[in-house]
Amino acid sequence: MITFIQIALSVLLLFGCFFILVGALGLVKLSTFFKRLHAPTKASTLGVGCVLACSVCYHIFLGQDPQPRELLITVFLFITAPISAHMMAKAALSLLMETRPSLPGNERAKEEQLPPPEPEREEETPAS
């Protein structure tokens, strides 16, 4: 039974390290801000959560009480990571909206060399 628990904790630790690595590589390799934001907040949160769960289970396996610092790190991570990602995404969207033209037919669209708007088609009413 002891060997099974050790193997399970090792697998959980490797699983967490894999997701931390994926999150770090996503932060470095992905091209746009929103893709770079998505990788660390999702993958690294899962990775750090697995590592902390493994640490808590290890201390329980040894017969010790779970360390309060590990539980506080877990709570802090799962509360702050989605909130900070949401706030950064909202800030980036608001900054991008200022550079985007409001209507495709205005002067700013011509300056940015956007395609002209399609002409409006008037509906023909059938003559009776």
Strand content: under 5%
Rg, please? 26 Å
Shape: elongated
* Biggest pleated sheet: none
Q: Poorly predicted ranges (pLDDT <50, ≥5 residues)?
A: none
Mean pLDDT: 79
Count, helices? 4
- Counting helices, strands and paired strands, the structural category is mainly alpha
Q: How far apart lie the N and C ends?
A: 89 Å
Q: What order do the helices and strands follow?
A: HHHH
Per DSSP E runs of 2 or more residues, the count of β-strands stands at 0
Fraction in helix: over 70%
Structure description:
- With 128 residues, the protein is an all-alpha fold.
- It contains 4 helices and no strands.
- The protein has helices at 2-29, 33-61, 68-99, 107-111.
- Helix 2 runs antiparallel to helix 3.
- The longest helix has 32 residues, at 68-99.
- The chain is elongated, with a radius of gyration of 26 Å.
- It starts with a helix and ends in a 17-residue tail after the last helix.
- The model has no long low-confidence stretch (mean pLDDT 79).
